[in-house]
Amino acid sequence: MTDTPTLAADFYAFQDLLTPVEQAAALRIREFMEREVRPVADDHWERAEFPHHLIPGIAATGVIGTAWPESRRFENSALFRGWAAVEIARVDASFATFVGVTSGLAMGAIGVGGSPEQRAEWLPRMGRGEVIGAFGLTEPSAGSDTARGLRTTATRRGDTWTLDGAKRWIGNATFADLTVIWAKDTADDRVKGFIVRKDAPGFKAEKIERKQSLRGVQNADITLTGVEVPESDRLQRIDSFKDLAGVLGPTRVGVAWEAMGIAVGAYEAAVRYAAEREQFGRPIASFQLVQQKLADSLADVTAGLAVCVRVSQMEDAGTRRDEHAALAKAFCTGRMRAVVARCREVLGGNGIQLDHGVARFFADAEAVYSYEGTYDMNTLIVGRAITGVQAFV
Hints:
Blueprint: H1 20-47, H2 55-60, H3 78-89, H4 93-113, H5 116-127, E1 133-136, H6 146-149, E2 153-157, E3 160-170, E4 178-185, E5 191-197, E6 203-207, E7 220-230, H7 241-276, E8 278-279, E9 282-283, H8 288-317, H9 322-346, H10 359-370, H11 375-387
Parallel strand pairs: 1-4, 2-4
Antiparallel strand pairs: 2-3, 3-7, 4-5, 6-7, 8-9
Helix pairs in contact: 1-3, 3-4, 3-7, 4-5, 4-7, 7-8, 7-9, 7-10, 8-9, 9-10, 9-11
């Protein structure tokens, strides 16, 4: 094993399940996040800006595209990929979302649905951080109802497809080099995926302003007006919503891990604050009610990490099903929400100020709770698996 220090929040030492190579990689990520991202995270969050200058640095750690042989720099497991999300999100959830979108969603779409030629063209450059990706699925009128409510269309004429429609809440889209757009084929009404370059005529991405969560993420409203895409840029192995679901399962697990990273970050900040803040002549860490809040938060973090570890082991074994990912996402984001609220209470009034380390996590948790399938939708996926009865409508 390496001498990678264990996070204090990793009470049951789940990190020890990583291989020595993976532990060394986790340490590189942690060092980068502490050295480069933490000092600027609050400022960029407050200004709703993304630290573009840090992209080469995070790419150099090898964390982008770890799932694909074309971009993978070392052998790694789904367990490591989840742990990497914790290491990033415990410092900055916006930065973790950026990595998740380009590495998990955009690269995942190309990795799962792309031809060998498409994979060879895009995945190596994306893994090096030279090409940034976005993932255009959600629409203004189709969030949870994407399977039936997708209105963006794709019409084929010869070797060219024409895309028309709109997308909303698309992370990275204001600056991404490519966006994977999902649309329904007007000929057969089946879902297909397309690699759309940022300079394509008719493609427009406008930043969504006035957000109060994940402010560093550059979400966009996208309009597609007669955007022409060659057949060579259609994802060749995607021909249905079921195929698309093959992309979303692993990323849903990734969001569960990210939620635990947010919970870890809030917990760590609350522990530090409790040791430093004095009331009634002594540190508040000496008060029983504060200790109870910290112990309850650690229990929630530990339970969430245990779920994440097991579902990632199932991913590696090829036994993970959609309902496993759904339960992990629902449970972990629910526990995250409880932890950030409890940790904000530990800080009292200071808990709403960026300077004390919890307010950003408290706000960011709300977006993570909702994206990649809301809590309600994920529980219905689990409920269907339990009962055999679909209750979505």
